Amino acid sequence: MIPDKNQPSSRSHPLRGYLFIALAALLWGISAVLGRAVFTGSLPLSHGAPRPIDPLILSQTRTTFSLLVLLPVLVASRGWQRIKLPTRDLAFCLLLGMLGVAVSNYFYYVAIQRTNVAIAIIVQYTAPVWVLLYVVVRGQQKLTPQKVVAVALAVTGIALVINLLGTKSGSALRFDFYGIIAALLASFSFAFYNVAGHRILARHDRWRVLVWTLAAASAFWLVVNPPWKIAAAHYAPAQWIFLFVFSMISVLGAFSLYFLGLQHLEPTRAIIASCLEPVFSILLAALLLGEVLRPIQTLGIIFVLAAIVIVQRPDRGTAEESLVVEPME
After folding, report:
1. Under 8 Å between Cβ of 123 and 158
2. 20 to 30 A Cα–Cα from 1, which one of 148, 149, 193, 299?
3. Which tens digit of pLDDT belongs to each residue from 78-89?
4. Are 118 and 291 within 8 A, CB to CB?
């Protein structure tokens, strides 16, 4: 039975929690590499297939397949009444699913396709910084020296990663303007999901919110890319198998492990531990796809990760709550 909890249990085991979070981060890293491999042809699924897998169909099927598996499991384990939402919260989940999950996923995979794994995931991972700036502008938190340092590190880190500071030509990371814009849009959408979803996650458990945001994203993609267009693409059986396995790994497998980790860790610690995701993604891309980083770009990645850790930690000497940003791959 899927637990209906948002907080760590009284019998928490922190080391076990960190292990679950690390495994979830590893699955998300594998997903990023699989996406890049299938976009570039490094993972040929079917010779002579009429149409290659692109970011749109990858984004659409990962949400739809995950919903088709998760919804029956939740209904069977909890009953329909325990996964229903009030009308207002349901409408809110629809908004989160479309503008948060669907848009973020699509632009993230566009960024992976047009640049590479390192650029896409590091730029997207600046979302907590945008959330921080939002709550500061709204007056919900104060701009402390710690937060100023975090923002400066994140901005500098992005500039180094995408070679914006004019280092030598021939960088291992290819600068693609549309790809960079897509990565930024993914990070803004990711930030929107966290800002807008904070209150609803305080009222309902994560599995319930996840299933309804997946439902909204799936409905959105049915409008954008209806079934007859998918049928006309004539995807090969091997491509469909890949899409199903990809959705199980990147959504249900990873989030199951992440939510298990939350049963043993406070959300702030879990979020910091989930920063292993870009580390795993970049290392796997280097090992399996030959994506090599130059030292200046590695420094940029370290800056961004440091900024995320700083943002998630509470300020010393203040009573403000820490800024918790949920992962949404």
Report:
1. yes
2. 193
3. 888 888 888 888
4. yes
Sign of the alpha-carbon dihedral angle for 257, 121, 199, 130:
positive
Q: Is 27 left (phi over 0), alpha (psi -120 to 50) or beta?
A: alpha
What is the pLDDT confidence band of residue 111, given thresholds at 50, 70 and 90?
A: very high
CA distances to 46, 51, 58, 142, 252 from 35, in Å: 15, 16, 8, 39, 17
Q: What is the four-CA torsion angle of 153, 23, 256, 9, rounded to 10 degrees?
A: -80
Percent of the chain with pLDDT over 70: 84
Token pair for residue 205?
């458990």
Distance from the Cα of residue 177 to its chain's centroid: 21
**Alpha carbon distance 321, 315 (integer Å):** 9
Copy the structure tokens of residue 203. 């009222």
Q: Mean pLDDT across the stretch 50-78?
A: 92
CA proximity to 193, closest of 67, 321, 103 = 103
CA distance 45 to 326: 33
User: According to the model, what pLDDT value does residue 6 have?
Assistant: 54
Question: What DSSP assignment string belongs to 286-312?
Answer: HHHH--PPPHHHHHHHHHHHHHHHHHH
254 near 28, Cβ under 8 Å? yes
Q: How far is CA 179 from CA 166, 182, 183, 320, in A?
A: 18, 5, 6, 36
Chain segment 122-144, per-residue pLDDT in tens: 888 888 788 878 878 887 777 77
Q: What are the start-end ranges of the E strands in the chain? A: none
